[in-house]
Amino acid sequence: MIVITGGAGFIGSCMQQALHARGVETVVVDWLGSAGKWRNLRHHAPGRIIAPEALDAWLASGPDVGAVIHLGAISETTATDGDLVWRTNVDLSHRLASWCAHAGVRFIYASSAATYGAADRVEQFSDDPGALEHLSPLNLYGWSKQAFDLGLLHRLEKGELPGLSWAGLKFFNVYGPNEYHKGRMISVVRVKYDEARAGQPLRLFRSDVPGLADGAQARDFIWVGDVVDVMLWLLDHGHVSGLFNCGTGVARTYADLAHAVCDAAGVARQIEFIDMPESLRGQYQSFTCADMRRLRAAGYSRPFTTLEDGVRRYVQDYLARPDPYL
Known about the structure:
9 helices
């Protein structure tokens, strides 16, 4: 079986759907809560759901696991409880890596492009292990992901995890179905679609970077289906180990995204610029672009979905339908 932590969440439930389609037995580690998160699994229920606090005991019972896909985390970039974030994003990840090494189980985990902090040039988004220690995340979430990335590499270098088959993925700006429970952390695509559907101009933050035009802030937006394809490929290629970027390798502006949403929704293009909230100033990445050369060199060769195609698929195949879930 394959264990998916965070398997009822956005990316996790999309991965669950793909494994369910393959006929793979899965165990999801997550809380469903009372806000309708169960709907992410409605069309492809796992064999079992385990609460995160029960995971250690379940693993200690010796289940027959083929791989652990570790996507569970506190992912809010505005998180402030450092102790909780460390326990969840770092301590738990180390325990899972240790268990996988001991059990001979493939370990695939989620890192984040938030580790790159204020990087603003393509060459600064290198996933070369030699550059890892020089990164400066802007927020607690990014720092926790950086701490685990570094900690895992140091443990591997010291021989503490002999034989571990592993891969980490630095997710860039992922969008697609099943993210509806994420509140303030929902993708910009969904937020802009709601504005377009309401007949409102699509609101974008004014630039707070001198010389950068409003709407010219750019991110590497990646369709969730492409993220799932990369993880499936890593499952199928257990000899590939390392920490890799997971983006498209192309930065697109927020204006491009707003136009793509309007076009997909069949409404006129309208953009209104608003001031950036004070809470985001100094923590906002105005440019991200994944350097994908190492993943390509490792053998991943599939093309990535363009922003226009991904937004059109998300809007027309999911958001505009009565049942928007995957």
